[in-house]
Amino acid sequence: MHNATYGRTALLFALCAALGWTHDAAQAQAVDGPTTVCITAQAAQQPQTLVVVPSGTVFATDDTAGHTPQAQAQAQAVVTTETITLTHMQPCMAADASSVVSHTRHWLHEKVRPHNGQVLHAVGEVSGNGVDTGMEDEDTSLRDLVRSGALSLSINRTVQDPVFLQESDADLPDTGDGVDTSASRDAASDLPSQRHAH
Fold first, then answer.
1. How does DSSP classify residue 165?
2. In this structure, what are the phi and psi dihedrals at residue 171, rounded to the nearest 5 degrees?
3. What are the pLDDT digits (tens) for 40-71?
4. Is 99 exposed, middle or buried (0-12, 13-18, 19+ CB in 10 A)?
5. What percent of the chain shows pLDDT beyond 90?
6. Which of 18, 28, 44, 172 is 20 to 30 Å apart from 64, CA to CA?
């Protein structure tokens, strides 16, 4: 009887150790990708929450800070290169991604590095040579999350392997703020990558 008790105790310890190792491995895997995509706590509060974030979703720094040269110099974007599913129980998930370069949108960083507290928000998806901010091919619930700013991304380690967009000012949505974008087009045309593109 003493041996049976000892055997059960040893089995229990082994099981706990195995579960502990699995839990640690799962935690390590959660931050294994170069980025982490999350939905806000408010968006994830319903137990039936299921959000499929498709590959090709573009996340960018907040461009509402204005059109100042400083804000433009800091603007950056990434695009997910795998589809992930977020739920009530798992509102955040690691994802592979590439950086996005668009001279028209002033996303000029071929390498996007992590910065404390920096969060990028979903702005659309890659479509053709640019970004489709309407996301009409996606379901309404995903479009609503994007428009409300409830879908965000943080950088865990440097994101590179850039995707170069060749969109023009005509591809940008009309924000109605009366900003003349021809100046940005003229400035971008002086860039070496733009000179070779013609």
1. P
2. -80, -15
3. 999 998 888 999 999 999 999 986 555 566 66
4. buried
5. 53
6. 44
pLDDT reading at 124 higher than 60: yes
Q: Write a three-state SS string for 101-132.
A: EECCCCECCCCECCCCCCCEEEEEEEECCEEE
* Structural domain count of the chain: 1
Burial zone of 66 (CB within 10 Å; 0-12 exposed, 13-18 middle, 19+ buried) = exposed
Domain assignment present for 122: yes
User: Considering all CA atoms of the chain, what is the largest pairwise distance in Å, rounded to the nearest integer?
Assistant: 86
The answer to the question of residue 93 being in a domain is yes
What is the model's pTM? Answer: 0.70
Domain extent for 80:
44-62+74-169
Contact 147, 132 (CB under 8 A): no
How far lies 16's CA from each of 6, 8, 11, 12, 114, in Å?
15, 12, 9, 6, 35
